[in-house]
């Protein structure tokens, strides 16, 4: 599930670029990306006669998921208005490290040194793969990117605390409904609603909406079944998928530094997996 989610989120970046080139903009994409899933989820819940009420103990975890998802969208999109996209991406993708630290500090789980090394190595690899530009270090942009990072960690930690009885559909509905409200108000205030033109623009916009639905539920499922720590480690693949998506869909090319970064991330994930298998083998009777 983590792999499916990371892949879906990563591919969306290149598809968003194609949608923008067809005449749309980021606020419109965020609005429709949330509107379509919220309507689909609401329709499914009504047909199944499923209650929109939350389970006991689910309010604060759901609120954390909602705020985390909203903070990622607004913080990340706003940051790129002040600092280079590559720098904003590198700061944002530090959230797996923040998740690992938060899990340990909250006493939810211990973390062995091999996993610590894997997280640090993966982040270093992302730094090379994304090749950020430090030419512009606007404090507002840095603060907004950091907000997106903390929001990502909040989402993961909150999703892990969801009660087992809490269904995914209502969580998805509330997360997307709040995003629709906030993005809709921003579009109204700025008069920024812009639909894409042409078949390519509409195809990529439709793909973004459906991919986001798959990505969100896969992410929640991955955190529930694998835990925030494991899922966060796998989500280091998301920017790599975004890079390969840009190569395939946008015709961009990887240089030597970026290729080295990609190899470092993959090596870190493989090392963490092997270390976990050794831990299980050693603990087995």
Automatic annotation (TrEMBL):
Spans traversing the lipid bilayer: 26-47, 59-79, 85-107, 116-134, 140-159, 171-193, 199-220, 232-251, 257-275
Full protein name: DMT family transporter
KW Ribosomal protein (keyword) present: no
InterPro entries reported for this sequence: EamA_dom, EmrE-like
Key words, A-Z: Membrane, Transmembrane, Transmembrane helix
Domain EamA residues, every copy: 1-129, 140-271
Any one annotated GO CC term: membrane
Lineage: Bacteria, Pseudomonadati, Pseudomonadota, Alphaproteobacteria, Rhodospirillales
């Amino acid at each position: 599930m983590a792999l499916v989610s990371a892949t879906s989120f990563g591919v969306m970046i290149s598809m968003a670029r194609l949608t923008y080139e067809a005449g749309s903009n980021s606020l419109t994409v965020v609005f429709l990306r949330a509107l379509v899933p919220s309507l689909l989820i609401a329709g499914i819940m009504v047909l199944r006669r499923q209650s929109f009420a939350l389970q006991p103990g689910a309010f604060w975890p759901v609120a954390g998921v909602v705020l985390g998802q909203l903070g990622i969208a607004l913080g990340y999109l706003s940051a790129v208005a002040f600092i280079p996209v590559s720098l904003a991406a590198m700061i944002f993708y530090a959230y797996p490290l923040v998740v690992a630290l938060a899990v340990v500090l909250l006493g939810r789980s211990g973390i062995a040194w091999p996993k610590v090394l894997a997280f640090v190595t993966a982040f270093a690899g992302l730094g090379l793969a994304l090749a950020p530009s430090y030419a512009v270090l606007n404090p507002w942009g840095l603060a907004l990117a950091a907000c997106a990072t903390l929001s990502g960690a909040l989402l993961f930690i909150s999703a892990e605390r969801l009660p087992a009885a809490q269904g995914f559909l209502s969580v998805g509905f509330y997360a997307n409904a709040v995003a629709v409200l906030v993005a809709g108000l921003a579009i109204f205030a700025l008069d920024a609603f812009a639909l894409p033109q042409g078949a390519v623009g509409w195809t990529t916009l439709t793909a973004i909406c459906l991919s986001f639905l798959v990505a969100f539920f896969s992410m929640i499922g991955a955190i529930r079944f694998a835990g925030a720590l494991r899922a966060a480690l796998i989500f280091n693949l998301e920017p790599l998928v975004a890079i390969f998506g840009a190569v395939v869909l946008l015709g961009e090319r990887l240089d030597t530094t970026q290729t080295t970064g990609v190899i470092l991330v993959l090596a870190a994930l493989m090392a963490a997996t092997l270390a976990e298998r050794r831990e299980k083998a050693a603990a087995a009777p």
